[in-house]
Write the structure tokens for this entry.
Amino acid sequence: MTEKNEQIAPMIAINAQYIKDISFEAPHVPEIFTQIKSNPEINVNVDVNATKINNNLFEVNLNLKAEAKAKITINEKEEEKTAFLCEVSYGCLATINVAPESIEPVLLIEVPRLLFPFARNIIGDLTRESGFPPLMINPIDFAGLYQQRLAQIQREKQKATLN
């Protein structure tokens, strides 16, 4: 028997991970802590983008924006105020070794799926360290987001051909 010492390149190799941009604002602290009337309403927006660096090396950025709004009482008037606004752009350099037709789904589904736990942890730490309960964002369906993106592009193409 002969053994082959060939190395098979992994389909996805994360070469580096990093915080590309981060922002946290709590404009109504400390009032928000003493005058809050209900649990905050939290909206989370997600965006993913990828840029080719060279050959099969790409930069992928997972952008998460979480905004919490809460009702507080000021001078016996109830108002909605921003409790916090947290924005994190978490990126990586990834080597992708797949068929050309699979590159886009891998970049916009699989790589963000690998990055998400790290970005989620950063947001949890930021909110906790700012005096709020840690925000643990629910898992994200990146395949669904990708399908929505494709459907939006298709609608735009149809609209352009009708005009």
The beta strands are 12-25, 41-54, 57-74, 77-96. The radius of gyration is 21 Å. The chain has three helices and four strands.
